[in-house]
Amino acid sequence: MDIYQLYNDLFQFMKTNRCNVWLDTLIPLLEHKLVEKPHGDQQRWLDALESLPSLEVEDVDIATSVSATGQVTDSQQAALEASLRGLMPWRKGPFNLLGVHIDTEWRSDWKWDRVAPHISPLQHRLVLDVGCGSGYHCWRMLGAGAQRVVGIDPSYLFLMQFEAIKRYCGPTAPIHLLPIRMEDVAPDLETFDTVFSMGVLYHRRSPIDHLFELKGALRKGGELVLETLVIEGKAGEFLMPKDRYGMMRNVWFIPTTDTLKQWLERAGFIDIRLVDLNQTQLEEQRTTDWMRYQSLVDFLDPADPSKTCEGYPAPLRATLVATKA
Ligand SMILES: C[S@@+](CC[C@H](N)C(=O)[O-])C[C@H]1O[C@@H](n2cnc3c(N)ncnc32)[C@H](O)[C@@H]1O
Fold first, then answer.
1. Ligand 1 mutation pick, 111, 136, 203, max ligand atoms within 8 A of CB
2. Would you say 153 and 159 are in contact if contact means Cβ atoms under 8 Å apart?
3. Of 5, 65, 69, 110, which is the most exposed, with the fewest CB atoms less than 10 Å away?
């Protein structure tokens, strides 16, 4: 994999603004992850990408969905579907590519519909989406008018899925996915106008450090959009699962919304607003033909779906919006 070919446009952009300092650490890190020590499945996924057929796209919609349309024959559509299935499991979406509907585990569009009405308009903004998965929301951010969107997510498979979508939805569009963690972003860039962290905070062993990292990436006056698991309760309370939460091994802290507000205040954010609170429904996260493993219904107590199988409160998600002072 040639990182200069993959990220040429992003590197050129980064040279011309404050991200310049980030390039010094980003390029060696990408070389290490994608070239020197690639993921064991990388070649298989690259083969799937290579096998994507060249098809003529007539129209792309990223304002109301993530879809590419055009005239294709049945055999072209079958070839496209076979290549995309080589990148299973598909978790975040859905995507519609030339008649192939990728029915992902998550209805990420539902989350976007809950979040989008409450954020500052994205027109002309430089946006960072931390823990972006396969980039579904990145496309919707671009569709909402962002100048450029950078998604970061350490999962290689998500990068491959993102590149497959990009091939049909905008090969030269100002949208990029870097297979890195938030901890790998150069500290205190003070560059992005809006930073999203959705579904990441509870995966972090040091959630307050995560908030400081997000603040460091924002310019002064920039906006943080934070979406995470919460529990009901008072300020100062949080849940730290004894072991797994909803069968996930990597869940560390689930605060109440008032605790989360305090964390944001202590991290130096102002104008903190809780804009959405949502109990995750079984229809929003489920097993599909494109993600055939277990899903939410298997992670809940069959006798009492208001609890996880470990007996904790079932997933409740809050979205907060805050400003960097
Ligand atoms: C629950 S998913 C959320 C995906 C998407 N943001 C959404 O809201 O649907 C969490 C994502 O965060 C990523 N992630 C975990 N730790 C991370 C870190 N330290 N930095 C950046 N991303 C991380 C995971 O790989 C995973 O794709």
1. 203
2. yes
3. 5
